[in-house]
Structures are given as structure tokens and as C-alpha cells.
Amino acid sequence: MAGGIVGGDIVSDVGGSIGLLSSVYFWTYAAMQIPSGLLADHLGPRKAAAIFLSVAAAGSFLTFAGTGFWTIILGKIFIAAGMAVVYIPLMKIISVWFGKTDFSQLTGIVIAVGNVGAIAASAPLEALADSLGWRETFLILGAVTMTLAVLCFIFVRDHPHCKGLPAIEEIENLEKGTPIDDVTDSKLPVMEGLKMVASGGRKFWTLAAAYFLVYGSIMVFQGTWAKTYFSSSYDFTLSVVWFVTMIGAGKILSTVAIGVMNGRGIINSKRKAMIWGTLLFAATWGIIWIFAGRLDSYWFWMIICFFFGLFGGFMTLSFTQVKEWYPTSISGTAVSAMNLFLFLGASVCTTITGLIIGTAYTIENFAFVWALMFVFSLLALLMVVLSVEKKEGDQFADLQPNGVG
Q1: pLDDT per residue of the chain (405 residues) written in tens, 0 to 9
Q2: CA distance 126 to 145
Q3: CB neighbours (10 Å) of residue 296?
Q4: Full DSSP string of 138-158
Q5: Which residue of 22, 53, 322, 330 is 20 to 30 Å from 227, comparing CA positions?
Q6: Which of 282, 10, 259, 18 is CA-nearest to residue 115?
Q7: How far is CA 368 from CA 216, 224, 270, 292, 379, in A?
Q8: How far apart are CA 204 and CA 124, in angstroms?
């Protein structure tokens, strides 16, 4: 998120463009998604997270010391590569240590905590950068990240067996009196796991495409252009960075709420919830497009930004819907495959909009981009409608590598 807030300061100091600074992160993150899933499944979450958090810390230190734009870009690549191998190991930890009914709630909490980071990368980050400078800010972030790497290595345990405890699946199966046919620490060959995910048909590809479009459009607004758009198109007396803060607040509320409601059975159909959420998300994009440059009410845009984040968070349920079709032994690979499309969407969308907007921050350019994102959100809605949710009694047999997904 930092590129959308301090990107202007960085570009002013060393040159370059905000669009490139933002998109290079997403391209790198996307490229690391399949490797991150394989690392989580085969190296283990503890080692994978500790090693790559150290890589991210090194990237933050490089950003602090960089004197040219391309050095900053290299630092951004290191940060992205390191952070890419954090979320998937955490999802692997959740799938191993906790029961299946807890997955959606914990996923919602994890994504909400991530959006606390997004909020920290809005008004608080701007205040810190204004006080200390953007370089010193990255020095502090690097030190914090390295500390987290050490703490992960010391305290994280990949599996309950590491502490002499039975795996959650074993407990559940023993309570049911059924044999253990999906042992958590069993490992499928890498290519077999990838083929199994790729053969998912409408069970995987529709939601992958939907989240590609939704997350891509979110990062266009929240992660790249919102601050620049509002500061260049309006003359508000209050800081526009609070709009970005409200997006994060909306996402925190929705990701936690829908995760808890799904886990407690209040939301019976993840697919229906995502349909409604994506429909309202598309409607919000329509409002942003239609009223671009036409309404200069600070509080109107504050509310719109909150609802943008709120409805954008509903797609969190896609991780749970997809994961339920696959065995735990490849849960890291399945989730990382979904995450790949999230960040491919962010990469493609930020690159396209960077080419459209460039350094010409005109209402016409922004309105065209908002219209394009509105169309993308409608296409995402169609993909969610076409997706398939697993029902009680559905079997995994139809997702074998040599079968028909």
C-alpha cells in the first residue's frame, strides 16, 4: 500500500512513476504465488515465512539506502518476493491446526489484520513519512520485518505433531469413527497437486477470474490512485488520505463479519453471499465513475470509500469455497493458486491504468479508468454466478488430475 501514499515523495526525490512503483510489486508478488504454495507444502510454513520475511526486510533496507529509481524498484521487488511467502504459509497453518469450520472465520480475521496494515499504510504512514522522511520509514519497517522473521523461526510450529499433539483431522476422524484418509502431513507430488488444482473447472477457474477482476480493481483505487485522484481533482481542506483509510476500515469490517457468519452457519451459501457483495461492489464502482469530478462533498466520498472496502471484502469467501474442493495435503497449493490470480489482477490492472493515466492527472483519464473498473466488476459478478459451491456429500473424486473438473 505504501506506493499509493509515499510514491509521490519517492518519485519527487529519485524520479520514475507511481504506476510503475506500484505495479512492479504486484507482478513480483504474483510470480511468487505458486512457489510460495509449494514452499508452504514442502519446506514448511515456519522456515518459508522466516526466510522470506528476511528477504522482505532486506528489500526495505535497500529502499532506505537507494539513490536511484531502479534501486528503489529492486528494493520493491525484494519486499514483494518476501511478503509473497507469508500469507500462504499462514493459510497452511490455519488449515492444519484448526478444524474446517474455523477456516472461513480465521481467514477473515487474517485478511482483516492485513487491512489493519493497509490502514497503517494510509494516514499513519503519511504522518510518519512527513515526520521522519520516507527513507527512515522504510528503515523502521525493515527492522520490524526482520524482528518478525526471527520470531516466526523461534515460535511457529508447522504441525500439531511438532508439539506432540494430534492433527485436527485425526481428532475429527476419530470422533466420527472413520479412517484417516487425508493425513495432514502427507504430500502429493508437486505436479500432481498442480494438476489437481488446474482441473477444477468451474470449481476453481470462475472464482480465480472473479477475484482477478475484483482485487485488481481494488488495488487500482486503494493501492495506487485514490490519493492522487482526490488530491488532484478536488480541493478538500481535510486530508484525502483518510479516504484510503476508510477503504481499509470497510474491508476489515466485512472480512471479519462474513467469516464469522459463515463459520457459525448464518451465511449458508458462500456463493450467494459473494454474488450480493460483488453486485454492490460493482454498484459502488458505478457511483465512483458517474460522479467523478462532479460532486465535491468530502463526506460523500468518505462514505463511498467505506462501502467500496466493505463490499470488496466479500470475495474473501472464495478462498474457503475453493479450498473445500481440495485435500489438506495440497491446501497451500490451492490457496496460492487463488492468490496468484488476485495479484495477477492487481499487476495487470495497475499496469493498464498506469499507462492510461501516466502523469496526466485529469478528470477525463480518471473517469475512463473508473468506467473500465466498473466493467471489470460486472464481469467479476458474472464469474461468481457461474461458480460452483461444494455441498454436503459432494466428493473430491471428480477433481482427480486425469478426470474432468
Answers
A1: 777 778 778 888 888 877 788 788 888 988 887 787 778 777 888 999 999 999 999 999 999 998 888 999 999 999 999 998 888 788 788 878 887 778 777 877 888 888 788 888 877 888 888 899 889 999 999 999 999 999 999 999 887 776 555 555 554 544 444 433 344 445 556 667 777 887 778 888 999 999 999 999 999 999 888 988 998 899 898 888 889 889 989 998 988 888 888 877 888 899 999 999 999 999 999 999 999 988 889 999 999 999 999 999 899 888 888 878 777 666 667 777 887 888 889 889 988 998 898 878 899 999 999 999 999 999 999 999 999 988 765 654 444 444 433
A2: 19
A3: 12
A4: HHHHHHHHHHHHHHHHHH--S
A5: 53
A6: 259
A7: 16, 16, 32, 10, 17
A8: 37
Q: At what angle do helices 69-97 and 45-65 cross, to 10 degrees?
A: 160
Could you give the C-alpha distances from 17 to 23, 67, 104, 130, 164, in angstroms and in order? 10, 15, 38, 20, 52
The neighbour count for residue 354, using CB atoms within 10 Å, is 21
Max CA separation in the chain (angstroms): 67
Residue 46 CA to residue 40 CA, distance in Å, equals 8
Local structure of 387: helix, strand or coil = coil
Rounded distance, CA 161 to CA 265, Å?
A: 30
Q: Which domains, from first to last, does the chain contain?
A: 2-161+190-384 (1.20.1250.20)
73, three cell numbers: 524498484
